[in-house]
């Protein structure tokens, strides 16, 4: 599968670089994982906004789902003009006002995530892990029909169960909102040392630190992560692509 980092900033876009959004593609099937603020514009650098039929939202914070409505409105217009004949399908948590908005939107089909259930979308198998965050939030694992494994932790505290969930992944996108020394348990996020620990214990092929803070020297995040024996680790950048 091909993975494109459309955006990776925490909280708000940085100029034209969006918050969280990751595009997965294989055999003409495209899934967008998270649609944070700026993603509806940012994705059009890579594909047309109507070329996407599946969005999976890890949770409904603005930096992960703020542009979901823009995608739904785009689909409504395209359906009304008969340019597209399929509904947009959005997977997401069942709790929260955003779920109600998605349910009500014409030409969008809402598919509530059940944590224990696996879903098949074209060549992809999608699984979820319930995170520890301030609202109902899921880490997302996508395995393709060649066995390539992608994991996006989304926002979460460090948890041992995430090691099992991510184990052996070819590519791990890991929440690194916090600099080392900040208490992830309080914030509902991981600091970069915890992100490195997760990547190391899960024995992933490569780890990408994402959900990055706007402040501070971000290279320090890498130093913190590398205290643990990890293979390849890097900072997310908008436009980065991976073939796994
Ligand atoms: Zn969040």
Q: Which keywords apply here?
A:
seven-stranded mixed sheet; globular; zinc; 23% helix; 8 helices; alpha/beta; 28% strand; 3'-tRNA processing endoribonuclease activity; Metallo-B-lactamas; 244 residues; Metallo-beta-lactamase, Chain A; binds zinc ion
Structure, described:
- It is a single chain.
- This protein is of the alpha/beta class and 244 residues long.
- It has a single domain (2-243), classed as Metallo-beta-lactamase, Chain A, CATH 3.60.15.
- The chain is 23% helix and 28% strand.
- It has a 7-stranded mixed β-sheet with strand order 6-5-4-3-2-1-14, with helices on one face. The chain has a 7-stranded mixed β-sheet with strand order 7-8-9-10-11-12-13.
- A hairpin with a 4-residue loop joins strand 9 (138-144) and strand 10 (149-152).
- Helix 7 crosses helix 8 (219-225).
- It is globular.
- The model has no long low-confidence stretch (mean pLDDT 97).
- The structure holds zinc ion.
